[in-house]
Amino acid sequence: GRAGPGTDMRTEISTAAAFVTRLLRAAGGVGEEQLRCFRECLQEAMREHYKHHWFPLVPSKGSGYRCIRINHKMDPLIGKAAGMIGLSHERLFQLLPSELTLWVDPFEVSYRIGEDGSICVLYESPQPGGKAAKQLESRTSCKEEWRIGRSSPSKSYNMMTVSS
């Protein structure tokens, strides 16, 4: 029989790969055939990378490992797929946002552009077993990990200092 949604990561990976491909297409200068090849290569690279790091029962587990990140250095998975269509890292930096974080988790794919950008959800599906509330909780904690050690204090931090 077929595995339920979220267990085989196909939707999550194709959503994430399509998103990066869309960013490249929007930047212009990359042909459709190249873009198609890039998307397939990226999906393949992600599948390989995530193979033993996908936990539908604990969606936030391994979130940092699966996270696709461009932050003054190119994400290796994006770099690899781009190499297949002859795009250098230099070229990629011109085409893609210099600060991009893409979280690919079971049942949810979300991204943030810029260190202080807001987090936008690209794909969300209900978790089997009705753990929706729990999921929201883990979502914040998983994304908070990235904020620790940032120079600018986060908003929640500012609010906490206002104690009467």
TrEMBL record:
Belongs to the BTG family. The gene is Btg1_1. This is BTG1 protein. Residues 96-115 form the Anti-proliferative protein domain. InterPro entries: Anti_prolifrtn, BTG, BTG-like_sf. GO terms for cellular component: cytoplasm; nucleus. SMART domains: btg1. One of its GO terms (biological process) is negative regulation of cell population proliferation. It comes from the Eukaryota. It holds the Pfam family BTG. Gene3D superfamilies: Anti-proliferative protein, N-terminal domain (3.90.640.90). It comes from Neodrepanis coruscans.
